[in-house]
Design goal:
The protein has about 375 residues and is α+β, with helices and mostly antiparallel strands. The protein contains six helices and 17 strands. The longest helix has 21 residues.
């Protein structure tokens, strides 16, 4: 099933060229009428002024949605794919213009253009995330207002193409648990590793009865092969900046692939998992000592500023879809000099919303978080 994405475009409204021309003509006619005493020009400008005044009486400006099919597409490097994009307004009495643009590193070519629907062919030579930008121009209220806006119509995820590697998967039955292999034989092993508490699922024959009797609870003997773990490589899958993959991201992905290949050569099961949880780490550095209460207030102010930045960015929870206030791994730290090392400097007793220090902390955290969020979207 092909996914169709619908995105509302945030339009910025301003006077259209027609409105500016009407204002220029009316102003010039009124100036000539007042300076030269030509009262006939006043009657000429009256309809023009009436047209300008009617802007406030007309219906509200319409909303415009950009649709893309497919909304998200995956392909390989240098592979060409096609995406259809069109714009629709709520009312039919407006003119909507649509222009598609590509980000750096992606080639975009229009293959079919209809009245409000365009089909483009896109391709990229390097893997990464490539959004297709839709620039919308709307003329409303009888041609007197012009609205413009830019939105991400669709996302094209380009995956890397790599040469075949000499990673032959062993033709043997894989072990139940993977990691430490002392012999070629498959089985639980006999090499002693440790004694641990019993957990549901442990075999009865693994129970160490003497240790269990001394400690008053069930304990099992753990073998070397039993304590091994599957090889799992985690990659932070938070959306990277638009365009080709950065050097750091490319190094992370290729390093993860090499780790998995090494595990497969040893006969282990291995996988690569991508996580989508981002982290907002904030550290606030203050050049004056803070009392304990002031440090608590500083953490409170920084937390509220971070939440405001996340809400303003429109970030949604990946589980519930509700507006998010942060992530489960966020961290906030306050750094201030110690009173003893500040050469007698007075410790600030407060850092609330009605203090200058609290205002500076909130403004700095809000601007920093907002700038960081804009940089990764």
């Amino acid at each position: 099933m092909i996914e169709t994405r619908s995105t509302e475009v945030e339009l910025q409204w301003r006077p259209s060229p027609l409105t500016r021309a009407v204002v220029t003509c009316a102003a010039a006619a009124l100036a000539v009428a007042l300076i030269g005493g030509y009262w006939q020009l006043v009657a000429f400008t009256a309809p023009l002024v009436g047209v300008l005044v009617s802007i406030g009486w007309q219906r509200e400006v319409p909303r415009v949605h950009v649709h893309a099919e497919p909304g998200s597409h995956r392909c390989f490097e240098s592979e060409e794919t096609r995406v259809s994009v069109w714009a629709v307004a709520e009312t039919n009495d407006v003119a909507v213009g649509l222009t598609l643009e590509a980000v750096r590193g992606m080639r975009l070519e229009t293959v079919d253009r209809a009245s409000q629907r365009q089909t483009v062919a896109v391709a990229a030579d390097k893997w990464g995330r490539y959004p297709i930008l839709a620039r919308v121009k709307v003329v409303a209220r009888g041609g007197l207002l012009l609205g413009t806006g830019v939105s991400d119509a669709a996302d094209v995820f380009v995956f890397p193409l790599v040469s075949p590697q000499s990673t032959a998967i062993p033709r043997t039955e894989l072990l139940n648990r993977l990691g430490t292999h002392l012999t070629r034989h498959i089985g639980p092993g006999v090499e002693y590793a440790d004694v641990r508490r019993y957990v549901p699922g442990d075999q009865l024959r693994a129970v160490n009865w003497p240790v269990s009797a001394r400690r008053g609870s069930l304990h099992v003997t753990e073998r070397l092969t039993d304590r091994a773990a599957d090889v799992v490589v985690l990659i932070d899958g938070y959306p990277q900046p638009p365009g080709p993959a950065t050097e750091a991201t490319d190094r992370v992905v290729r390093g993860a692939v090499q780790v998995v290949q090494s595990a497969l050569r040893a006969g282990d099961r291995a996988t690569v998992e991508s996580t989508h949880a981002g982290t907002i780490n904030v550290i606030v550095v203050v050049n004056r000592p803070l009392a304990r209460g002031a440090m608590v207030e500083a953490v409170q102010i920084a937390t509220e500023a971070r939440v405001l930045a996340v809400l303003a960015a429109g970030i949604k929870s990946v589980r519930s879809g509700a507006p998010a206030t942060g992530t489960g791994t966020d961290c906030i730290a306050i750094a201030a000099p110690l009173r003893a090392r500040a050469r007698g400097a007075r410790a600030e007793p407060y850092c609330g919303k009605h203090t200058l220090l609290g205002e500076l902390v909130g403004r700095a955290v809000l601007e920093s978080c907002a700038r960081a969020i804009r940089g990764i979207r």
